[in-house]
Amino acid sequence: MKKYTFSVYRYNPDVDNAPHMKEYTLEVEENQDLMVLEALIKLKEKDPTLSFRRSCREGVCGSDGMNINGKNGLACITHLSSLKSTKIVIRPLPGLPVIRDLIVDMSQFYQQYEKIKPYLINDDKTPPARERLQSPEDRAKLDGLYECILCACCSSSCPSFWWNPDKFVGPAGLLHAYRFLIDSRDTATDERLDELDDAFSVFRCHGIMNCVNVCPKGLNPTKAIGHIKSMLLNRAV
Amino acid sequence: MVTAAATFGRSGSHDFILVRASAIVMVLYSLFMAGFFLSTPDVTYQVWNGLFAAIWMKVFTMLTLSSVLIHGWIGIWQVSTDYVKASGLRAFIQLVFSVGLIAVWLTGLFVLWGV
User: Fold this and answer.
1) ipTM
2) CATH number of the domain within which A20 lies
3) How far is A86 from chain B (nearest CA, A)?
4) How high is the pLDDT of residue B3?
5) Residues A59, A143: one domain?
6) How much is the pTM?
């Protein structure tokens, strides 16, 4: 049996005056490799007060984003073996208010997402009867953008989002913003760019690429933000 | 759209362009001064005075001091809006640095005026 030690962030505002780390141990058979989420579920069987979000348990819903050994990720697709240590420290996503234990308040994250109008806008007065067609080349431009599951691992690893969560859209929101800016069927490109051309929304990104480092879907928000900056600068000069 | 009155540019892209353009001017001035010191083994008062008496050098120096003013103004505004959350303290820090940067610019102007 392999013995893992978990140090888990605990905070219940109804009971605790301050957050604290609680130690747990878990024995796993030598030939078995659990995901962090499975380990947390086993810990919850021992201590039912431990709280965390989870749903699909296969990296699709984005519910179980958390900080695992200092790096944001999805607990359901992070193998214990990939952590290279039997000492595992689990904290909630940084920079977001904690509701309880590993559960964070995502309101600011969703408000920034809402700000970029994450839906297709088309002012065509005579919409096609069946669907708006795209060339394969135009469709390919959406690859690497539409796959985002809004787990908030990227935005909550971004210092610019930590300091200004009410003003900086953040990497997840900006990845989605570019997804609609580059969509050949969307006709609101100028209006979208007008909304982003302030000193905070996009330009507070200084390209440190924490978002790229942690994205569990392997996406590249920094690259998308670079494209948005280019679009804004091309209009400005 | 987030409005930000205390920064220098009219928009995010304007700030972005100003920061980079001013950085280019400062790099060119630094390279020029490094080249001057390397190619002039004996920097006497007369040589130094002669360099800054030339009208192009006065313009180049004022352009650089203007770049320091713009670059510093935007930079301090960005750093203070990241790290200083109390708006009163942030306004004070921005005031101190902005006045300081303008004072540097004016000092350069009057020094060059007298050369």
Assistant:
1) 0.84
2) 3.10.20.30
3) 36
4) 72
5) no
6) 0.91
